[in-house]
Amino acid sequence: MPTNRPVKGHIPISPDLLQFVMWRENMPTHDTPVRLPGQGAICAYLSDLIAFGATIYSPLFAVEREPVDNMKLTARLRFECSPGLVDCSFWEYSDLIAHYFSVFLAQQWKEEVDRWAASATYFNPRMDRKDAIAEIMRISGMDQFREVETVIRADHRFRDYRNLVTHRRAK
Fold first, then answer.
1. How far is Cα 66 from Cα 23, in angstroms, rounded to an integer?
2. At 162, is the pLDDT very low, low, confident or very high (cuts 50, 70, 90)?
3. 36 with 102: CB under 8 angstroms?
């Protein structure tokens, strides 16, 4: 007889990206589980990633693969999902899901910083891009895990890589 209780689990994640997920999904504490499938973009991506992993993984056709280096993933993102999303073979490919989810979250963080800084400098032309980045780090709580200057330099490299122009203010 199938049960309708949610399945509980966790995915390894780095502590700074866990803070980012908490901020984006409005989670009150680290122990609050994320509900899958959820309404936020991060929850939707994670549930799609788990469903995709379940469709491509088959124990009959499992091949030898290189182990994924997840040593930096020391925190846990707890989740509750509908009973059909996670099956008994989930734990055999969960390291790949954790890796791809971390890559996705790192890209989302970069884009969030870029969007925040662009909109803050657009609506307040006197604000410097560096101040806007420091503000989003303070609001999101990421300043506890990453140095502000490091994120500013990474944002500058990100903009140079994409050949984006930073407009200078008129004096």
1. 33
2. low
3. no
